[in-house]
Amino acid sequence: AQKVTQAQTEISVVEKEDVTLDCVYETRDTTYYLFWYKQPPSGELVFLIRRNSFDEQNEISGRYSWNFQKSTSSFNFTITASQVVDSAVYFCALSEASFNKFYFGSGTKLNVKP
Amino acid sequence: DGGITQSPKYLFRKEGQNVTLSCEQNLNHDAMYWYRQDPGQGLRLIYYSQIVNDFQKGDIAEGYSVSREKKESFPLTVTSAQKNPTAFYLCASSFIGGTSQETQYFGPGTRLLVL
Fold it and tell me: Mind listing the pLDDT tens digit for each residue in A16-55?
């Protein structure tokens, strides 16, 4: 079974639209970490955020915000007023305390058109 | 500047040839990882190492080998036994802290193509 599911394979929006990328995870651990990474066309994965399982506060960083809800096992990522430079593949990942490994989702490709 | 470097950026392999991808980090990270990414796919773990002279297989280790002789370096060899090596290879590193993995940071990647 998939530990991390990103059901949206590809999303296209027009610049300045808001967009939310969904991430649903599965774990039996009570201690775990969730991550979001951005992969621009150049290929390198860029770390965006890390959240631990005990901190359900939403986080905002500029145009980026993250909504962590343990009740629905979701860690969604919203980009406000999207820009062309946001075009990339975005990956959600899970790390469990009981096993030293990252589980990556399959990624969501975001296309922001001018 | 601290970071992770991978070389070469592009690598071409002939049939039956072994090739080695380099990964170096100067972040003083304990753990290092190799992932494979196929077009339109997520990341799959090949090997990882948490300490010098020790490493573990990931999900798709067959046809690959690694070594960890220095903390800073974790080269990956794609052997002739790997029948479909064309992919994008990403190296990552992290500290190991507490009861859970720390954030993994990634290098720029190496694209391997078979001639």
Answer: 999 999 999 999 988 899 999 999 999 999 999 999 898 8
3 state SS for A46-104: EEEEEEECCCCCCEEECCEEEEEEHHHCEEEEEECCCCHHHCEEEEEEEEECCEEEEEE
B45/A contact by beta carbon, under 8 A:
yes
Report CB contact under 8 Å: A33, B101.
yes
Is A33 in contact with B43 (Cβ distance < 8 A)?
no
A105–B contact, CB cutoff 8 A: yes
Both tokens of B5, joined, read: 């470097």
Contacts of residue A84, Cβ cutoff 8 Å, sequence gap at least 6: A15, A112, A113, A114
What CA–CA distance (Å, rounded) separates A38 from A92? Answer: 9
Query: Does the beta-carbon distance from B106 to A100 stay under 8 Å?
Result: no
Listed in sequence order, the residues at least 6 apart from A106 whose beta carbon sits closer than 8 Å to its beta carbon are A5, A6, A9, B41, B42
pLDDT, tens only, B53-100? 999 999 999 999 999 999 999 999 999 888 899 999 999 999 886 554
Is the Cβ of A101 closer than 8 Å to some Cβ of chain B? yes
Pick from B75, B94, B93, B57: which is nearest to B18 by CA? B75
Distance from CA of B106 to the nearest CA of A (A): 6
**The two structure tokens encoding residue B104:** 């993994």
**B52 vs A23: CA distance, rounded Å:** 34
